[in-house]
# Entry
Amino acid sequence: MFQLAKKRVGFKTLGCRLNQFETDAMASKFVAMGYDVVEDSKDTDVFVVNTCTVTNQSDQKSRYAVNHALKNGHNGMLIITGCMANHHKEALEELYPNAYVVDNENKSAIPQLVQAHFNKEIVPANTTQGGVFNYAPASETFHTRSMIKIQDGCDNFCTFCIIPKVRGRATSRPVEDILKNITEVVGFGYKEVVITGVNISRYEHEGVKFSGLLAKILDLPFDFRVRISSIEPDGFDDEFFALLTHPKMTPHLHLCLQSASESVLLQMRRMYTYRSYKQIVQRLREIDPKFNITTDIIVGFPGESEEDFQASLDSVDQIGFSHVHTFKYSKRDNTRAARMTNVIPEKVKSDRSEQLRHKTAEAKRNYRQQFIGSEQTVLVEKIDKRGFAHGYGEYYVPVQFKADEVKKNSFYKVKLTGLTDSREEPVLIGQLID
Amino acid sequence: MSHKVPVANKIKTDLHEILEVRNLTDSTFVMRFERKGLEFEAGQHICVGPPNGIHTREYSIYSAENDDYIEILVKEVENGLVSPSLKKLQKGGFVVVEEPVGYFTINNKLPKNQKYVFIASGTGVSPFHSFVLSKPEIDYTLLHGVKYGSEGYESETYDKKRYVKCTSREGTGNYYGRVTDYLKENKFGKDVQYFLCGNCNMIHDVYDILEEQGVSTDNIHAEVYF
Ligand SMILES: Cc1cc2nc3c(=O)[nH]c(=O)nc-3n(C[C@H](O)[C@H](O)[C@H](O)COP(=O)(O)OP(=O)(O)OC[C@H]3O[C@@H](n4cnc5c(N)ncnc54)[C@H](O)[C@@H]3O)c2cc1C
Ligand code: SF4
# Structure
């Protein structure tokens, strides 16, 4: 029988994990609608660029992704969504008249929008029914881990950050909805869920705060492990620390620091001090001396003195970070920091960024080295052509091992025997334990 | 499958009519405008701007949780963008107001007899004005750092025994010197909840002093204005 060719949808995702979650969720809806999902624009009927606007560089990258697709002859439906779409809607619509520019609030309605487009119904991009949490669980995504979005928006208003303006006010997803979502994804075969959102430590729904929610998630009677994505180091209560010892919890937090200088933190209007950050770390390391702590640090914030920068540099050893995502400060219009006058020259920023990257590479190797000789439970994400399985251990350290009878998306006990030479991304080498 | 979808969380703004302006000094004034049902907790702030511009700035709410209007205490900053244009507005005019936000609030779960020390510089006294009016039973001491005695900003609101005006440029307050000097000379203890509001330098120094006095960072809450 004659069969119509399957439609193809391509995605390009920039920025944070939340965006990645949203792309995954959209992709799963497209799969359910019978689409093939790919990761570029080539030969696609629909190409979705899920943009980010956190730095000027992300703006540029987002625009580049759109231009690149058009230059390479993409003539299917083009959708621009994400934070840049919220922030520069009019300008984007002017620049790309054939594109649908869909704001974050309507992102989850993109599959319906696409159907409506192909049904030749005229649907204005920003009026279809959407909503910030309207995603089905990602049954078919690019990853083995399933991102579970628990909240959106942020009310912290850090002085450098545009997110509260473009994402809007903090909203938390109902507890029952989250538990249902996790039950479904575990049912789909996911072994690890990542709790995600813009500012998850501020989760609060009908009196249930973040720790309360986490306790309920960990109580679900299934076999899966839980990872917490990027989190702000404020609002941790005793219950939270107690939950970190739960067997389903992975000993890793991406605990955003941004600067280790107390005065820069105040200028950033962050909700914590470096002192309190260190206290949190101390409690984490009391729970587990190898507890993996990764972070984001901004260098070159207005007024950052050599001394301030040195404090951030020193924090790498003081905290024992295993990874630092280094950002050069870039001015975002309509933020308080944009009006600060003591601007750091670009060259100084680049120099500081380089020093921090160098230090981080060293720290990463030191951190990973200590696992040699130990065992890790590795969730296999990929098996390469040479027959090597790649995945992450419970501490979120990357591991590779030679394996013949190994399946993707399964846990394996692996004995770690060495570390690859890569300066930027050394990977632990292991042997499968029968 | 379908999920319950909360309404999108766009920032809501509205025009509010100005009901009264009280000039407290040459540069500082209280602006009262319509509440229009806005809900807030004492200590939160709102973004306010002139009706004809696109710019707004954050201002702590000065009035009480139960008042049927909203007030803000504003200092006109020389060469500033928004505060000078707010200063020009009169009763009967309008301001753009965004819904209240912020976490500089009192934890209602703390015991009723909890002691508080509020430390403000300049207009940083505004959220404390709202705390005291909203929670009249609260056991507090307010240390207010200003340059001159005339910058007390309606200090008659506070119980005289609980209010310490620290004047740094003249001896017309209750204490001649900086608020930080007062704090070094007068310890309040480790079980007190400290709330600091105003400029960054004051807050930075107070953190250091309190740390030296053995106060845990869990007991310190800060709202940085600039
Ligand atoms: C959470 C929060 C709450 C705030 N609440 C209040 C409040 O209740 N009352 C109030 O007057 N201001 C308050 N501010 C400051 C206010 O938001 C504006 O920054 C201020 O009114 C100046 O705005 P502008 O547009 O006139 O000046 P801009 O053009 O934005 O800035 C000019 C410069 O003035 C300095 N500056 C800012 N505020 C002050 C100030 N109060 N005194 C002296 N110098 C200052 C800054 O260093 C800034 O670089 C608050 C700020 C924040 C973040
Ligand atoms: S916590 Fe700060 S940096 Fe993070 S989203 Fe909110 S405002 Fe931005």
Notes: DSSP finds 13 helices and 19 strands in chain A. Residues 276 and 416 of chain A are 34 Å apart (CA to CA). The interface with chain B takes residues 105-106, 130-137, 152-153, 155-157, 164-165, 167-171, 173-174, 177, 180-181, 184, 262-263, 266-267, 269, 271-273, 275-276, 279, 336 of chain A (CB under 8 Å).
